[in-house]
Amino acid sequence: MDQLSAMRAFARVVEAGSFTRAADSLDMPNATMSKLVQELEAHLGVKLLQRTTRKVTVTPEGQDYYAKATRILNDLADIDASFNATRGTPRGNLRVDVGGLTARDVLIPLLPDFMSRYPDIRIELGVADRAVDLVGDNVDCVIRGGPLANSSLVARHIGDAMMVTCAAPAYLKQFGVPAYPRELENGHRLIAYVSPQNGRAMPFRFQKAGEQIDIKIAHRIGINESNAHFAAGIAGLGIIQTFASSARPAIEAGLLVEVLGGWQPPPYPFHVVYPQNRYVTHRLRVFIEWLLAVFPDKVRGTSPERRARIRSRS
Length: 314
Known about the structure:
Elements: H1 3-16, H2 19-25, H3 30-44, E1 49-51, E2 56-58, H4 60-87, E3 92-98, H5 100-117, E4 121-127, E5 141-145, E6 153-161, E7 163-167, H6 169-175, E8 191-193, E9 204-208, E10 211-215, E11 221-223, H7 226-234, E12 240-243, H8 244-252, E13 257-258, E14 268-275, H9 282-300, H10 304-313
Helix pairs in contact: 1-2, 1-3, 1-4, 2-3, 5-9
C-alpha cells in the first residue's frame, strides 16, 4: 500500500463529502480512490468512513485520523514549498473562483501580468456569483465582494469598489432623471441585484456628508448574476447600482448615464478567501500577494476627473 497516497485520498473524501467528488478533484478513477481508502482502513484496523448509497459519514476514528493526517500532509507540503520558494519557481494548478462582472472587468484584464510573472502556474478560473464550497470543491481561493458571513475561512481584504447609480438614456427619457434618492420611491423602476446566497435583494444605498439613505422599495426586476444585472441596465429596464469599473466604459459610450452623482453608494469591500485548515501553497501565497498589489486600483474604478466632479457637487 502507498500509505501517503491513501492518506491524501482519505483526506479528500472527508473534505469533498463523497468518493466521486474526491476522485474528480484528484483526477483519479473512483475505483482507485475507493481501493486506497479500503487499504488504509485494513492497514489501521479501523473503520474510517461509513458508506451508504446516499452519503459518506466520517466515523469518530476517521475524524481523529483526518486531523492527524492533514497535519502530516501539510508538513510535507511545507517542505516541498520551501524548496520551490528557494528556487523562486512556484508551480502547479491554482483553482480560483470569482463573480462574473469582477472576472470580466477586473481580474481577467489583470491576469496577463500574473501569468507572465509566474509562467509555471496554471490558473483554473471558476466564474459564477453563487457561493462555492472551497473545501468540497477543492478550490484554492475565492474572490468575493460584500459583507462576509462568519465562518472558519480566512479572509484578506484586497480592495473596495466604487459604486455608481446609472440608467440607460432611453429609460431616463421616459421616466425622468432623479435629483434626490427618495425620488426613486415615486414611479421609478429599480433593477435589484439578488444575492445568490440568500435570495435577498440588495437595497439601493446612498451617502452624503454623513447622511445615509437606504431605498428598499419593491423592485421591478431582480437578477442574481452580475453580468445579467448589468445588461438589464443597458437594456433600459430600470436603474441599477453597479461597479464604477464596469460602468465607466458604458457611460463613456453613451450606453448608460450616471444619476445622483452627489449621492455616492458606500464602497463595496472585496476579499480573497481561503480555507483555514489548508496549507497555503507557494503558488497561492504569490497569487494573494499579487492581488494585494494590483487589485485595489483596478476594482476602485474611479478616475481623478470623476473624483473631482463628485467633490464639487458635494
